């Protein structure tokens, strides 16, 4: 007769194997409800969602190897995966993201991106997924507002909602996402102002909010985001002056503020910052002269100051720059002789056109 201890051990082992080998019926039901709310007619990725074990060979679904809990949903409509290569096309999906997804409370990654036609709103229950680290819904037709309690997702490192039709204001709670490293809300219909305390997002390295309808000024607190490398606020309705502190940020190398209603003088710190590689301030209302602060360590892949109200001369120190890949000073009120030097050798007349009285190579002789 088998010992009671051996029997108990066998039961425990069997239970463990059952857990490891398959997801729970509850989580499977949530996934099937998520699937039922979507339609993907060309690739057949949901045809793999048919076996009893949703942790095994369900396309885009991953589970924890120990607990069997669903941890990742990774569905991208633009992919180099074999299923896309065989179909010879990118993905297309309609429908909505079911709130049933919120019952997967161990979810760390939710990617439903670049399917072009998924609509509906982001369910507020998404903020209950306390383990979520990546939320990427880019490239769809999602509407409505960003959930007001988005700041509850304390472990979130990536928030990408770009290329949708999301409206409303940026929730004040977004500044509480203390683990956030990548924020992309570009190409939506967001209105209102940036939160004044947006600088609390101390871990963010990419902050992309271009092509919205944001108003107000750029908060000075942005300058305290010490890990920020890429800031894009272009294509909005921002006004006021540019905080000089932006030019003193230690790793900021890409700054796009073009196509706004910014005014005042260009902070000299933006042009003297030796780490700045791409600076686009075009199509604003900047006035005054271009700060003459370039040096032998200045290295700009792109410097665009076109379509402003800048006066005076082209800074002589520009000729000492190590490299200027693309320079556009057109459509201003500049005068005088264009400096000579290697940064100017490859530039065309269009870089200096439509000013008041510029002359010299590559324009007409003075």
TrEMBL record:
UniProt superkingdom: Eukaryota
Keywords: Leucine-rich repeat, Membrane, Repeat, Signal, Transmembrane, Transmembrane helix
Database matches in InterPro entries: Leu-rich_rpt (IPR001611), Leu-rich_rpt_typical-subtyp (IPR003591), LRR_dom_sf (IPR032675), LRR_N_plant-typ (IPR013210), StomDev_PlantInt_Reg (IPR052941)
Gene3D superfamilies, alphabetized: Ribonuclease Inhibitor (3.80.10.10)
Pfam families referenced in this protein's UniProt entry, alphabetically: LRR_1, LRR_8, LRRNT_2
Keyword Signal: yes
Annotated ranges, domain Leucine-rich repeat-containing N-terminal plant-type: 26-64
Signal peptide: 1-22
Entries under PANTHER family matching the protein: OS01G0149700 PROTEIN, OS01G0515300 PROTEIN
Identification of the protein by name: Leucine-rich repeat-containing N-terminal plant-type domain-containing protein
């Amino acid at each position: 007769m088998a010992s009671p201890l051996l029997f108990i051990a066998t039961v425990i082992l069997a239970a463990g194997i059952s857990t490891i080998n398959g997801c729970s019926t509850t989580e499977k039901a949530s996934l099937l409800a998520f699937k039922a709310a979507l339609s993907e007619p060309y690739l057949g990725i949901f045809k793999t969602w048919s076996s009893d074990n949703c942790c095994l060979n369900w396309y885009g679904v991953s589970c924890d190897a120990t607990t069997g809990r669903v941890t990742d949903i990774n569905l991208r409509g633009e992919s180099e995966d074999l299923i896309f290569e065989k179909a010879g096309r990118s993905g297309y999906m309609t429908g909505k993201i079911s709130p049933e997804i919120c019952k997967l409370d161990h979810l760390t990654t939710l990617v439903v991106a670049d399917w072009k036609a998924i609509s509906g709103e982001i369910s507020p229950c998404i903020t209950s997924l306390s383990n979520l680290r990546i939320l990427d819904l880019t490239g769809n037709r999602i509407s409505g507002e960003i959930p007001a309690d988005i700041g509850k997702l304390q472990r979130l490192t990536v928030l990408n909602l770009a290329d949708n039709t999301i409206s409303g204001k940026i929730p004040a709670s977004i500044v509480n996402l203390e683990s956030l490293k990548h924020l992309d809300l570009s190409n939506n219909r967001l209105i209102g102002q940036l939160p004044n305390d947006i600088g609390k997002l101390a871990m963010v390295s990419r902050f992309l909010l271009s092509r919205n309808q944001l108003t107000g000024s750029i908060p000075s607190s942005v300058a305290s985001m010490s890990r920020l490398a890429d800031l894009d606020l272009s294509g909005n309705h921002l006004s006021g002056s540019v905080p000089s502190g932006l030019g003193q940020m230690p790793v900021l190398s890409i700054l796009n503020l073009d196509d706004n209603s910014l005014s005042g003088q260009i902070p000299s710190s933006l042009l003297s910052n030796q780490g700045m590689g791409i600076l686009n301030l075009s199509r604003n209302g900047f006035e005054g002269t271009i700060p003459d602060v370039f040096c032998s360590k200045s290295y700009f892949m792109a410097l665009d100051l076109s379509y402003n109200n800048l006066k005076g001369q082209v800074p002589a120190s520009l000729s000492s720059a190590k490299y200027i890949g693309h320079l556009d000073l057109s459509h201003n009120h500049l005068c005088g002789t264009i400096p000579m030097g290697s940064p100017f050798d490859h530039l065309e007349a269009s870089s200096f056109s439509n000013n008041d009285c510029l002359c010299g190579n590559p324009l007409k002789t003075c």
